[in-house]
C-alpha cells in the first residue's frame, strides 16, 4: 500500500501553467484523474495528494473541485503566492475547504533581500498563518535554497514543513555524483523536528531507473531524517520525463536501505503521510 504524496493534474486551457511549453511534448497535454486511476490500481497506491502546478487561486480551486469528485484524491496542496498583496484574501477564500492540506511555495521566495534583512515579514506572516491553522507548508527546493529556508524553520516550530524532491540536490549534481553542499545543508535543516522530506522526483533526477545515482542521497536522508519524516511521492506526470509510474514505484523501493524493517518501510510508503497531513484524522480513517 502507498500514499503518493506528489501528483499533478492539469488542463491546459485553464491558462495558468506558464512553465509548460508546446515543445515539451511529453507534458504539454491534459492529465486527468481518469488517466491516473488505472496507474494507481496497478501499483497498489490507495490515495494521492494533489500538488499545485500553478501558484494561483484558480489552480487551488480547480484542484479542490477535483478532490471533491474523486475519492482517491486524499488532499490538496494549493498554490498561493505568499508575497502577493492578495494572499490574505485568497487564503481566506479557500481556508477550511474540505481536503485542503496546505500550500506549496518555491524555495526562491526564502532568499534574503539583503544581508541586513534575512527574513521577509510577509513570508514569515504567511508561514505563521499556516502554523496557527494547522496546514502544511511544502517547499519546492532547488540547489542553493536550503540555507535560506533554514533561517525560517526555527521561527515556526509547530509548522509541518515538507521539502520536495529529496530537498533539491539538483539534477546536474546527481548526474555528476556531487554530494556537497547538499549533504551538509540537509543535515542542518533535518535537525529541526518539524521538517520532513519527500523521496520524490527521483526518476527525473536520475534520468531513468538508475538507483545507483541516488543510493547515497537516500541513505543520507534516512540517516538525517529517519524513517518517520520521509514520504513517497511519484511526481507524476512530470516523472514521465524519466519513466512510467510503475518504474517510479520500483525505483523508490530500490532506494529503501537494506535492513530497513517492514514497519519502517510502511512508514515511508504511507503511514507518515497519514500523520503529517493529518489524513488519519479523517472521519472513518483507520
Automatic annotation (TrEMBL):
Domain Amidohydrolase-related: 4-279
Domain of life of the source: Bacteria
GO MF annotations, alphabetized: hydrolase activity
PANTHER family assigned to the protein according to its UniProt record, in alphabetical order: AMIDOHYDROLASE, AMIDOHYDROLASE-RELATED DOMAIN-CONTAINING PROTEIN
Record-stated family: Belongs to the metallo-dependent hydrolases superfamily.
Protein name from the UniProt record: Amidohydrolase-related domain-containing protein
Annotated organism of origin: Paenibacillus agaridevorans
Organism classification: Bacteria, Bacillati, Bacillota, Bacilli, Bacillales
Amino acid at each position: 500500500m502507498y500514499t503518493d504524496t506528489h501528483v499533478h493534474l492539469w488542463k491546459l486551457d485553464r491558462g495558468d501553467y506558464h512553465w509548460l511549453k508546446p515543445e515539451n511534448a511529453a507534458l504539454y497535454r491534459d492529465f486527468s484523474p481518469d488517466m491516473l486511476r488505472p496507474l494507481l490500481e496497478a501499483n497498489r497506491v490507495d490515495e494521492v495528494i494533489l500538488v499545485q502546478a500553478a501558484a494561483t487561486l484558480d489552480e487551488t480551486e480547480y484542484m479542490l473541485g477535483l478532490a471533491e469528485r474523486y475519492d482517491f484524491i486524499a488532499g490538496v496542496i494549493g498554490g498561493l503566492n505568499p508575497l502577493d498583496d492578495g494572499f490574505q484574501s485568497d487564503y481566506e477564500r479557500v481556508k477550511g475547504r474540505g481536503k485542503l492540506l496546505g500550500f506549496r511555495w518555491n524555495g526562491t521566495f526564502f532568499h534574503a533581500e539583503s544581508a541586513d534583512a534575512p527574513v521577509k515579514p510577509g513570508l514569515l506572516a504567511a508561514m505563521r498563518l499556516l502554523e496557527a491553522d494547522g496546514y502544511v507548508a511544502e517547499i519546492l527546493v532547488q540547489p542553493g535554497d536550503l540555507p535560506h529556508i533554514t533561517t525560517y524553520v526555527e521561527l515556526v516550530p509547530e509548522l509541518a514543513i515538507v521539502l520536495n524532491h529529496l530537498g533539491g540536490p539538483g539534477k546536474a549534481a546527481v548526474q555528476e555524483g556531487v554530494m556537497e553542499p547538499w549533504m551538509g545543508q540537509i543535515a542542518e535543516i533535518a535537525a529541526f523536528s518539524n521538517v520532513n522530506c519527500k523521496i520524490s522526483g527521483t526518476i527525473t533526477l536520475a534520468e531513468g531507473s538508475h538507483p545507483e545515482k541516488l543510493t547515497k542521497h537516500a541513505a543520507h536522508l534516512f540517516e538525517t531524517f529517519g524513517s518517520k519524516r520521509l514520504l513517497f511521492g511519484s511526481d507524476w506526470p512530470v516523472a514521465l520525463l524519466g519513466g512510467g509510474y510503475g518504474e517510479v514505484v520500483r525505483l523508490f523501493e530500490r532506494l529503501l536501505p537494506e535492513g530497513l524493517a517492514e514497519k519502517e518501510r510502511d512508514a515511508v510508503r504511507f503511514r507518515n503521510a497519514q500523520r503529517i497531513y493529518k489524513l488519519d484524522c479523517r472521519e472513518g480513517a483507520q
